[in-house]
Batch of 3 targets.
Target 1
Amino acid sequence: MSPLDIHQVPVLSDNYVYLAHCLETGDTAVIDPAVAGPVLDAAEELGWTISHILNTHHHNDHTGGNLEIKKRTGCTIVGPRADRDRIPGIDVQVGEGDSYVLGAAEARVFDVPGHTRGHIAYWFEGATALFCGDTLFAMGCGRLFEGTPAQMVKSLDKFKGLPPTTRVYCAHEYTQANGRFALSVEPDNADLVSRMQRVDVARAKGEPTVPSTIGEELKTNPFLRSDSPDLQRTIGMSGGDYVAVFAETRLRKDTF
Ligand code: ZN
Ligand code: FE
């Protein structure tokens, strides 16, 4: 399976839009175009012709560029079946277990409700790339706007089993703030301490900290670590139920 060339476009205050380009066929997908202008400009500079938009969820900072990009390129818009009424210009509806072919690459689709009820993620196994929108962030996870802690745990569990080398292309640069919170609940996690040092250096230079990898997240992301004895002890829930610990961690982050 052909690998994808993936280009990151920073837009708005902290969003990342991605261009994923199939080297064999030239097909190019935009993942979660918050806006149109900078994405069209980036594609033009790269010499890539946009053929698809892949949306993870309906929020405007992920779909705001849909209609303008479709108007300018005639691209096909792919999005969550469960949220078809909230995805501007949707052409193809996908959900759990579906595959979507982009040129010579193929994405497997996961339903990952929690942040929104119709949120999906795209896993390109051959390109070791996961586009997870606002479900999993570097050292964080999305706020639970339309879902329960139990739903979000089930959604995040789908990512935990992916190969550790899988690159996590999340949709926001929230890493530094997430890491500060992570340290507050797992202060003795040596992997977390050293990751935060690298993140602080990168951010001081204005460099992106995304993508990370599933392996890094498993070691340092508190929202994948509700079974960590250290985390449980810090929040006063030693031996606590996994979902209850997750719910408490998420609640604390909301007001951190
Ligand atoms: Zn969102
Ligand atoms: Fe967002």
Note: The pocket of fe (iii) ion (ligand 2) is lined by residues 59, 61-62, 134, 171-172 (CB under 6 Å).
Target 2
Amino acid sequence: MKISFAEPALPKTGAVVVGVLEESKLTESAADLDKRTGGSLRRAIAASRFTGKKDELLAVLAPANLPLSRIVLAGLGKASAIDAMRMQSLGGGLVAHLNAAGETEAAVLIDAVEGAPPPAECAANLAYGARLRSYRFDRYRTKQKPEQKPTMTRLTVLAADAAAAKRSYQRLDKVADGVFFTRDLVSEPANIIYPETLAEQAKHLEDDGVEVEILDEKKMKKLGMGALLGVAQGSARPPRLAIMQWKGDARSKSAAPLAFLGKGVTFDTGGISIKPAAGMEDMKWDMGGAGVVMGLMKALAGRKAKVNAVGLVGLVENMPSGTAQRPGDIVTSMSGQTIEVLNTDAEGRLVLADVLWYCQDRFKPRLMIDLATLTGAIIVALGHENAGLFANDEELAERLIAAGKAVGEPLWRMPLGEAYDREIDSDAADMKNIGGGRAGGSITAAQFLQRFVNKTPWAHLDIAGTTWSKKDAPTVPKGATAFGVRLLDHFVAQHYES
Ligand code: BES
Ligand code: MN
Ligand code: ZN
């Protein structure tokens, strides 16, 4: 679907979309079109349940005197509540609606509405939402019939100051590129995306101006990454650690970076503590955290963010085999701390332990934020609406929560504390990789990570419940969500650009 911007004018073909405010108050364009069609829009509203509430859509087919296929009335809700998010959600809802209707071409008329943001900004956000919703992963569907494919080929957004709309869309479009990159990586099955191929994907970010370095098994052995390597040892696929640096700070390329870290378990069978067969296929997206970090780096580089950022992703496959680690094995992490591996399915924290330590040791970052599909327990606690947030720094936590709210990727703060930390003390080693029981499973996992952050300001996002969605949302079709890319892009833009 091609997206473009132009100055307002009545289009000559396809669908035209006009806004209606709450209580069926027509925008200027809607009123104008109503007049041209002999009052058919007001009659259609009267004959329906449509009242202009946000996200409501009403299609009126082929007016006899105009060369259009249909007019779609789009509910804007209360004028004072129109904001970027509402426009994005409207754009997403529209694309889904038009595809379902078999439409190929549509033009959206954006009016100036008192109390709402300027038309150019509304236009850019509508286009952004439309693009985000238009994502599809259909690489392997070789027998799709035409009626199974989306029909929309062209979306034109018409607003005063189309040039300004286009400019602000350019930035959003780069973020969408990052989101799509993440969604592609997370959607791919584990026979295609495994540590080596995921590292190769990271390498592609060099085309965007990112410096990329890949550590192989030998280098990680030398560094003493016994925790990460213990997880990897059961797999025929060797592990990798990908390091991506974006140096965009206008003042200094050597200024301390922001660090983003991702769990990249390309498939999690559980290892010797093997998972039940039912639903195990979901564990192809256990590299969701790594996927988000890679998409974020693409977004930051794409929009030339004025910040130094480094992304690190620990890439392993967790398999049971003759070489796999056993429950009870004791490994030595890069930090020197020893870990008794009581459950080989609590592997994400083992991978991140070495990535976190390596990151703070080498980069001395301003802060570290890790993302991981870490625990089933976070789904029990928060469902699929919020990701769990853990942090050792109040300002960082507040900024992340605010960014999540602003982009519609909400975080819910969870506690950390000494009493939880004691739960992972071990009699045989410095710590064990699971708590005593199932109680507070996401918290004990976070406590484990905290033992590897040293004194760096740090936040951990447990995205197990938000990485994959079973239902369509306005700007997120079902499947891989890329939850975290928009959030962290916004977080960076709000607070850290020079
Ligand atoms: N990757 C899983 C967590 C997960 C579960 C992600 C469901 C997405 C959906 C993680 O490696 C895991 O297996 N965690 C265990 C920890 C337990 C053994 C302490 C869990 O949550 O059951
Ligand atoms: Mn696991
Ligand atoms: Zn896992």
Note: The two ends are 35 Å apart (CA to CA).
Target 3
Amino acid sequence: MRDQIVAGNWKMNKDLSQAENLVAEIQQQVNGQSVKADKVILAPPYVYLNYLTERLSGSNGLHVAAQNCHQELAGAYTGEISAAMLKSLAVEYVILGHSERREYFQESNELLARKVDTALDQGIIPIFCCGEPLSIRETDQQETFVNGQLTESLFHLPQESISQLIVAYEPIWAIGTGRTATAEQAQQMHASIRQHIAGKYGAQIANKIPILYGGSCKPSNASEIFAGADVDGGLIGGASLNADDFIAIANSL
Ligand code: PEP
């Protein structure tokens, strides 16, 4: 069946020594017990990627993701990081389309389609984020809205590419707000996402793609949310900054 995955998005948090401590604690806990998640992915800020990939190489079940990459492979883009650079550091995954990137850096569905292509060309697996703002949820348009994000950013891909992806459903109104989607709302959206992918690529491909939930997920609510048949784990923000909470979530699958 599908991989059960927990990914921690550290965002712009932790200085170097704090990052070293967090990864050491996570590594110790993952090595010391068998964590229920098939894959535990850590997405630190860019500046710690090399440290993490070197430290975690050969570490069972622990993987590294970047939080973004540029759509071009190289060039005069001051301050940007390319998928080719990530590949050279042995980074396996990249989060693309996080709502904070969409909102604060004006990343459109069209731009994200290019980023997805560039990452896949470099052999890096996108963790593609989608999710609706509160105004859309309040008018019950969330399925149409999220389907549009998927169609515009992913549906140009051939079957063999889309089947490599991880999708993260993150309702914007639940990110960092302490307000979580109910288990029922999460399952309903995950089923809708899978159905939309199946409509284009067929059920066999859609059933292969892990769909993670993100939005104020914590040890106290993770088991209930992860119980949904189409919920294959979580993309965790705030709670991934604490090793005990993050591992507790990875054990809630
Ligand atoms: C996120 O930003 O991807 C996220 C899910 O954040 P939080 O868990 O803090 O809501």
Note: The pocket of phosphoenolpyruvate is lined by residues 9, 170, 175-176, 214-217, 235-239 (CB under 6 Å).
